[in-house]
Amino acid sequence: MKLKTASAAFALIGASALVLSGCAAAPEETPTETATATESAAPTIDYLACAVSDEGSWNDKSFNESVYDGIEKAEAELGVQIADAESNSAEDFAPNLQAMVDQGCDVTFAVGFNLVADANAIAAANPEMNFVTIDGWSEGNANLKPVGYAMNQSSYLAGYVAAAYSTTKVVGTYGGIQIPAVTDFMDGFYAGAMAWGAENGVDVKVVGWDKVAQTGQFIGDFTPNSGTSKSIAAALINEGADVLFPVGGDQFGASSEAIKEAGIDGVMIGVDKDVALTSPEYASMVLTSAEKRMTNAVYDIIAELSAGGAFSGEQYTGTLANGGTGLSPFYEFDSKIDDATKARLAEIEAGIIAGEIDPLS
Questions:
Q1: Residues 149-197 pLDDT 10s
Q2: Overall pTM surpassing 0.70 (yes/no)
Q3: Type and span of the H or E element at 326
Q4: Which of 41, 95, 244, 297 is deepest in the core (most CB within 10 A)?
C-alpha cells in the first residue's frame, strides 16, 4: 500500500526545498466551492494523489490552497492517500515533481502556469505515470492533462458590476506576474467595465491595465500582501479608483490597507476563491469574487481515476457554463446592487454561455 510519508529517495532530494503534507502545516479550515464536511473519513484505498505547489505555499488563500482543498476532499470522501510538496521558489519545481514520481503517485497535479515547462518535462520522462497541469498546457504528452479556466468570463461580470458600483467611475486592477493566467482576469475585467460604461453612456476608466496595449501594473511575484502590492494599490487609488481587483493570489490585506489609509469608501473584488468567506476579515470590503473553482476540478479528476476511469490528456476548461468559474454572492453588498444591474448580470452571463457576448471584446 502506498504511504503518505516521504520515501528515502524523496528525503535525499533536499529536505530544505521540499515539504510533504505529513510535515507541512495544512491550510486553515476554510469553506470551499462545494461542501467538504463528512461525518467520518472514507475507508482508505490504494490510490495516491499528489500535488506540487507554485510559489506562495498551500496557505495562499488562492489557487494553491484551492488545489490542496481538492486533494484533501478526495482523501476525506474517497479514501485516497495524498502526498504533496511545497515550492518556495522556481528552483523547487523540478525536484518536487521528481519527488512525487519517486513516491509512486498515481496522479500528480502541478499547480500554476509557472510549472508548465517542468510538468511537461517530467511527463515526457515518465510516460507510464499521469500528471495534471493547472493553468498550463501539454506539449504533446498524452499523460499530461491541462486544466484551464476561461477567467475572462467571470471577470467580465466582475468588471461590469465594479463599474456599476463605483462612484468615481474609475476602477483599478493589477497583477502578480504578467502571464496569461493573470491577464485573462484583467482583460475580462477591463472589457466588462467598458461595457457598463457603453451601455449607460458614462465614461468609465480602468487604471492599472490597458487591454489594448497589454501593459499595466504588476507586483513581479505572488508574495502575499507585499509592500509592492500595497504601493501599486495606493497608486491606483490616487488615480481615482474606488474598486480594486488585485489578481495575484492573496493581495487583499495590502489592498485593504491602501484603501483604509487613503480614507476612501473603497472595495475590492476577490480572485480564485470566495474571498468574503475564505478571508472573512475582509468581508466588509469584498464586493464579490471571480472564482476559479479548482477544488471541484481536482476532486472530480481524482474521483474518476481512483474509481478505475481511464486517464485522458484532453483539456478541461472551467467556464460559466460548466460551473468552473463564476461570481460569488454579494453578501453585505447585496442591497447596494440594484435589481436592474442584477438582472443585467444574469442576461450577460446567459449571453456569454450562449456565445452571444464575447467577454474579451
A1: 999 999 999 999 999 999 999 999 999 999 999 999 999 999 999 999 9
A2: yes
A3: strand 325-327
A4: 244
